[in-house]
Amino acid sequence: MRTSLRRWLALGVALTLATVLANASPALASVPYNGVCGDGYNVNNSAAITGGTIYLTYNNTNGRNCVVVIRADPGAAMTMDAVLKHSDATSWRRDPGEWTTYAGPVYLEAAGRCVDWGGVIGDAWVVRNGTNCG
């Protein structure tokens, strides 16, 4: 009896997990980087956010980071923001507004320093602290 119960429980858990993964929200699907930071900027990091993706890029030539927040489904203007700062700083560089496709680019010279970066789409926000410290 216990073996049968364990098998049924395991099967139930497996089916539930399969259903959750199969129906995962496309709102967290990765959106391709659009190159808006400019020539020489390469994607160093990214973060999923409900409704899109946040990209942190870096330019080896000028030592600058760039953040852009890109919507998965561009459309009517909505609240968006791209944010970036040195990890040891208190003020953010930002691009807040009502945007249809993306927020940013926001630039910061950060060669050899850690950065905090993130973004906002509607009511969702994501921030990554103390990353890309090179």
Helix and strand topology:
Layout: H1 2-22, E1 41-49, E2 52-59, E3 64-71, E4 78-86, E5 93-94, E6 97-99, E7 102-109, E8 115-121, E9 124-131
Antiparallel strand pairs: 1-2, 2-3, 3-7, 4-5, 4-6, 4-8, 8-9
**Mean pLDDT level:** 84
- Biggest sheet details: 5 strands, antiparallel
What are the low-pLDDT stretches, counting only 5+ consecutive residues below 50? 1-27
Tell me the name of the CATH class: Mainly Beta
Structural class computed from helices and strand pairing: alpha+beta
Strand percentage lies at over 45%
Q: If you consult CATH, what is the topology?
A: Immunoglobulin-like
Total beta-strand segments: 9
- The oligomeric state is single chain
Overall structural domain count: 1
Rg value: 19 Å
Overall 3D shape: globular
Tell me the CATH architecture.
Sandwich
Helix content: 10-25%
Order of SSEs: HEEEEEEEEE
Compute the number of helices.
1
Report how far the terminal alpha carbons are from each other.
58 Å
Characterization of this structure:
Strands 4, 5, 6, 8 and 9 form a five-stranded antiparallel sheet that branches. The chain has a four-stranded antiparallel sheet with strand order 1-2-3-7, with no helix packed on it. The N terminus is likely disordered. It has a single domain, classed as Sandwich (Immunoglobulin-like), CATH 2.60.40. It is an alpha+beta fold and 134 residues long. The chain is built from one helix and nine strands.
